[in-house]
Amino acid sequence: MKILDSVIFITGANRGLGLAFAREALRRGAKKVYAGVRNPTDTEVHGITQVKLDVTDRATAEAAATQCSDTTILVNNAGIARLTSSTLDPSMLDATRDIFETNFYGLISVSQAFAPVLARNGGGAIINVLSDAVWFSRPLLAAYSASKSAAWSFTNALRIELRVQKTAVLGLHVSFMDTDMTHGFEMKKNLPQAVAAAAFDGVEANAEELLIDEFTREVKQSLSSEQPLYLDPPEI
């Protein structure tokens, strides 16, 4: 499917990767770009229409799908992370509940709201932003990793089910990105613009799973080895 002349709805689109998706969509000639944000403002980037969306509120997801009934590509990008001191941190339970509301249940709500819209518009595509954390859980990000693992599992089931309506589902796996979420941390980071471009390339190539960077590919490839990376992790 081509990005040119498509209508794209992006969750969590006010900054970081979401905004990069919006700008890349416009660069490729998308007919319309909807930016799902919690608090729409009067200041809008040319060509990007802000739409009220809190992915943890099912009613706003359904309202957004009704308002944006011409959508042909959905990008489930919204996500949050919380650092905990360890897996034994007492705050771990509350952090996990908060993260799952956005990263897992939110993804389900938005996907359910927009799947009928995509079907009516010929099928289209869904991009679910996942992570290397699906397969490699760092102790400080254990809650986040669990949410992304759950989202990966749901993505794989969603892909099978939506084939009947000709909706492609792309699982996008990426390691750390240079966004507000990683600000202040020293590590190798992917540029959001490059990730968005690769994701749209994947949609146009009918890819079902995309591993953006070398580390993510290394983690995935190790799964079938006798000593997968998650059992013998690098220094973290």
Account of the protein in words:
There is one protein chain. The chain has a seven-stranded parallel sheet with strand order 3-2-1-4-5-6-7, with helices on both faces. It has six helices and seven strands; from the N terminus they run βαββαβαβαβαβα. It has helices at 16-27, 58-67, 92-120, 142-162, 192-204, 214-222; strands at residues 7-11, 32-37, 48-52, 73-76, 125-129, 168-173, 209-211. Helix 1 (16-27) crosses helix 5, helix 2 packs parallel to helix 3 and helix 3 runs parallel beside helix 4 (142-162). The protein has a single domain (7-222), classed as 3-Layer(aba) Sandwich (Rossmann fold). It has 236 residues and is α/β, with parallel strands linked by helices. The protein is 40% helix and 14% strand.
